[in-house]
Amino acid sequence: MRSFSGTCKKCVQVISVSLVLAFAVEGIGRKKCLILGGLGRALMMLWIGGFTAFLPPATPVAPSALSYLSVLAVYLYAVFYCIGWGPLPWIVAAEVAPNHLRTAVMTIAIGVNWLFSLTISKLTPIMLNELGYGPFLIFGFCCLLMAFWAWICLPETAGYGLEEIGLLFEREVISRSLQDAPGGRMFIG
Length: 189
Prior knowledge:
This protein is an all-alpha fold. Helices cover 78% and strands 0% of the residues.
């Protein structure tokens, strides 16, 4: 049975992450949070994969500073997940769907989300056994692709009403997305 202090600690964690997330999403926007989350997660996965690739396995030595940095990378991965690709796809999927299709779109989005979560949870242990550090590199590059997709293909939806968001996707989505992207204006003139 969980102690009262443990329960309080968990509540404080959930509330603090929720408040930071709410202010970050509304303050800097969904697009920048997704890009930041994707890049941060990619760096953490690539660090862990690279560190694991160059660390000789089963070497009984005292942990080095780099070992502690790898542990920190796991925690930072979770932070970047919470800032970007954990909760935001749910928000963006609900915002970009037209009102008359929102229920169907969210049903499909949730189903795909859970299907991929199940697939990754089943395949990751197998991949780690067979490929060693490879899954960290694969997931890191997937996170880079996710950040790139958000940068190129997703217009910023923060500050728009639900009725206005549909207009963002009617024409020239890529150029509109690049206008909103950090540094994107250099590509469109």
